[in-house]
């Protein structure tokens, strides 16, 4: 044990003192390679186990873990500078034990401010390390280390407050960049890509839990564009499902109804402050500065620091976001894997329920498009979910107008297709699907109030029946459904 302790102190001293030097010496590298071995890591792990077993007081626990964090950060810096051949599995276990400690001790009222900053430096070093070439096992191990650290930050309030602050946007951007690079790289192993996607989702959910979404709003355009490229080019079902989950979580985190209400309240407060200042200038009275108002609001417990500095709820931004989402959904609705189609319904429903105030009718059209396409799916569960999705839409006038337009387009297309090919079964199935949608969305009164659209539909079916006698049975079926609407 004495020799192991001597090796441990030698390695820590060398790493702590020499890691900041720009030029390493051959003797230093040799000493580090011989000192930092599995025995040293086993000793550190034994030390952490003693801490976790509550052999120390709370104050001593925090001091010991702070020391271990500092040593761990120096190890990562030494790895970046010197390329040490350290036992990566033991290092992963070391990080995991540290994360377990802070997760299980969330009740610590005071954590030294250097601890979150040390964790951020470690994350920054790991992101740089992931940019370098590694074998698949080593790369996955380093990525799991990053995932453990981000999960710990997302769960512990003290760490969340530091990582998701406006001062650490570069670190957040580095995390998002590394995850997207790996997720988008088709040359990577599928497990590595899925791990990158899950880490990115943890980071996004951590921002939502911290109530500081500026970082997500800052990187949202890049996330959407790159994930959209993956959704268009990739064929793996699990990857496609992850693209849907990433987009849904990223958009909902920044554009949900609660954030929209806060943004409107912030605008109203700023407009009120501006009008008071203008009136004060006219009257020649004292003016209360905006900075002073913000300080008072902070003292009162009201803060707008969690809101983006620029307004992300302008129509231009909303239209761009919805266009990208609609393109993804339109492509994935026709995917051969039923799991992908089910996730399409879940994601669009999630966004519609949580972001209705921000997007409004723009997103409602996407909901209707998805429901219209999947209501005739061959799987009963998907048909049921699509029918339930269609019932969520609320704007009846908009739905009636879109349905009229769709019926007219179908009638025109059916006439051309029947006279050209002589086949009416597929067109009539489309008409039956439209009538089912009308039933599900409570638009049956449209056929009684607008007789022209009903006549156009019947004329189309009769003209098709003249061409093909087998269509007569379908005409009778559709006619029965139409008569039900008049009752």
TrEMBL record:
It holds the Pfam family TPR_TTI1_N. It comes from the Eukaryota. InterPro entries: ARM-type_fold, TPR_TTI1_N. Residues 143-368 form the TTI1 N-terminal TPR domain. This is Condensin complex subunit 1.
């Amino acid at each position: 044990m004495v020799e192991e302790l001597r090796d441990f102190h030698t390695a820590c001293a060398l790493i702590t003192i020499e890691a900041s030097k720009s030029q390493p010496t051959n003797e230093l590298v040799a000493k580090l390679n011989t000192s930092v071995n599995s025995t040293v890591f086993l000793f550190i792990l034994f030390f952490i186990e003693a801490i976790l077993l509550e052999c120390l007081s709370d104050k001593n626990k925090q001091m010991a873990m702070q020391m271990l964090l500092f040593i761990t950060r120096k190890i990562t810096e030494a790895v970046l500078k010197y390329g040490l051949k350290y036992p990566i599995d033991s290092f992963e276990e070391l990080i995991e034990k540290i994360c377990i400690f802070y997760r299980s001790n969330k009740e610590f009222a005071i954590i030294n401010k250097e601890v979150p900053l040390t964790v951020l430096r470690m994350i920054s070093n790991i992101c740089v390390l992931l940019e370098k070439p590694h074998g698949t096992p080593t790369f996955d191990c380093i990525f799991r280390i990053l995932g453990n650290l981000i999960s710990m930050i997302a769960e512990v309030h003290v760490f969340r407050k530091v990582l998701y602050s406006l001062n650490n946007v570069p670190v957040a951007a580095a995390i998002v960049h590394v995850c997207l690079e790996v997720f988008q790289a088709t040359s990577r192993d599928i497990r590595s890509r899925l791990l990158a996607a899950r880490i990115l989702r943890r980071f996004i959910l951590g921002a939502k839990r911290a109530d500081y979404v500026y970082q997500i709003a800052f990187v949202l355009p890049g996330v959407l564009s790159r994930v959209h490229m993956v959704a268009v080019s990739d064929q793996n079902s699990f990857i496609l499902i992850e693209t849907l989950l990433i987009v849904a979580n990223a958009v909902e985190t920044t554009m949900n109804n609660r954030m929209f209400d806060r943004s409107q309240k912030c605008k109203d407060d700023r407009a009120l402050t501006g009008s008071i200042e203008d009136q004060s200038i006219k009257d020649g009275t004292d003016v209360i500065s905006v900075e002073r108002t913000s300080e008072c609001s902070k003292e009162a417990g009201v803060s707008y620091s969690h809101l983006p500095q620029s307004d992300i709820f302008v129509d231009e931004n909303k239209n761009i976001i919805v266009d990208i989402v609609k393109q993804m959904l339109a492509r994935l609705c026709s995917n051969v894997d039923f799991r992908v189609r089910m996730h399409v319904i879940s994601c669009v429903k999630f966004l519609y329920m949580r972001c209705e105030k921000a997007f409004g009718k723009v997103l409602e059209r996407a909901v209707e498009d998805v429901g219209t396409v999947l209501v005739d799916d061959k799987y009963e569960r998907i048909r049921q979910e699509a029918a339930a999705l269609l019932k969520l839409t609320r704007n009846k006038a908009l739905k009636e107008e879109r349905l009229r337009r769709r019926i007219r387009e179908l009638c025109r297309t059916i006439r051309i297709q029947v006279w050209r090919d002589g086949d009416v079964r597929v067109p009539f199935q489309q008409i039956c699907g439209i009538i089912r949608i009308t039933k599900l969305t409570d638009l049956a009164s449209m056929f009684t109030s607008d007789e022209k659209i009903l006549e156009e539909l019947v004329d189309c079916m009769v003209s098709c029946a003249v061409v093909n006698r087998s269509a007569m049975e379908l005409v009778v079926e559709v006619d029965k459904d139409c008569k039900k609407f008049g009752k």
